[in-house]
Amino acid sequence: MRKRSKPVHIYLLGRGIADGVSQMTAEALAAIRKSRLVFDLSGDVRAIRKLHPNVVDLASDYWTGELCDNIYDRLQEMLLDEAKTNGPTISVVVDGHPMVFDDVNWGIVRAGRKRGLNVVALPGISCVDTMMIDLGVDIGDGAQIVHANHLLTHNITLDPHLQTFVFQIGKFGTSFFTRETRANRPGRFTSLVAHLTRFYPPDHVATLIVSGGTRDAVRKRVRLGTLDDARAFLHRHQDDGLTMHIPAYPRAPVNEAFTRAIDDERHLAEIALV
Question: CA 220, 209, 60, 83: dihedral to nearest 10 degrees?
Answer without folding.
Answer: -170
